[in-house]
Inverse folding.
C-alpha cells in the first residue's frame, strides 16, 4: 500500500475466538482511523456486523473468493491476527508471502514463523496494550512497516513446498 494511511488487514472468520472484540476495542479507543484503515475480510455473524457498524476507518469486504486474496493482500501493509487459540493459521504465511508485516498472538503459529520485531510482532493473548502499541508503531514509522514486510516475504519463502521437500530429503538421507 503506497497510500497516505497504513492499511491493516484482519482476515478470517469474524468471531470472538479470533480476537475480534479485542481488535475492535483497540481500534475504537485509539482513533487510528485518522492515520490508518482496517480492512475486515471474512464471514461475519450479525453480532460482528453490528459491532463494526458506523466505526470510522473500518472497511468490511465480506467473504472473498480465494482467487482474489493475493490482490487484496498486496493492497495492505499489516495483517492483524489476534486469535486466542489457533492451529497453524495459514493466513499468517499467506500474508507474509504477500509482503505484509504481521501482528499476531503467541497462541498462533506466529512464534514458529515470526521473529519478534523482525518480520512482525508477537503479542500475548488478549493484551490490548501491546496490540495498540504495535499498531501505533507501524502507523508512525512507515519505513519500519515496509522493511518488516520485505523480511516477512523473504521468511515466507522458507516455508514453500520446495523448501519443505528439501528439509524432508535432508532428513531421509541422514537416516
Amino acid at each position: 500500500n503506497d497510500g497516505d494511511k497504513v492499511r491493516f488487514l484482519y482476515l478470517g472468520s469474524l468471531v470472538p475466538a479470533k480476537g475480534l472484540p479485542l481488535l475492535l476495542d483497540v481500534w475504537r479507543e485509539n482513533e487510528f482511523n485518522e492515520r490508518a484503515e482496517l480492512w475486515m475480510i471474512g464471514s461475519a455473524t450479525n453480532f460482528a456486523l453490528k459491532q463494526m457498524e458506523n466505526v470510522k476507518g473500518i472497511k468490511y469486504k465480506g467473504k472473498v473468493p480465494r482467487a482474489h486474496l493475493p490482490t487484496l493482500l498486496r493492497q495492505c501493509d499489516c495483517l492483524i491476527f489476534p486469535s486466542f487459540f489457533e492451529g497453524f493459521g495459514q493466513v499468517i504465511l499467506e500474508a507474509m508471502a504477500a509482503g505484509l508485516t504481521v501482528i499476531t498472538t503467541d497462541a498462533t503459529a506466529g512464534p514458529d514463523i515470526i521473529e519478534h520485531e523482525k518480520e512482525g510482532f508477537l503479542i500475548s493473548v488478549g493484551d490490548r496494550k501491546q496490540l495498540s502499541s504495535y499498531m501505533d508503531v507501524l502507523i508512525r514509522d512507515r519505513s519500519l512497516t515496509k522493511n518488516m514486510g520485505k523480511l516477512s516475504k523473504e521468511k515466507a519463502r522458507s516455508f514453500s513446498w520446495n523448501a519443505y521437500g528439501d528439509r524432508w530429503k535432508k532428513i531421509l538421507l541422514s537416516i
Notes: Residues 53 and 60 are 9 Å apart (CA to CA). The chain has eight helices and six strands.
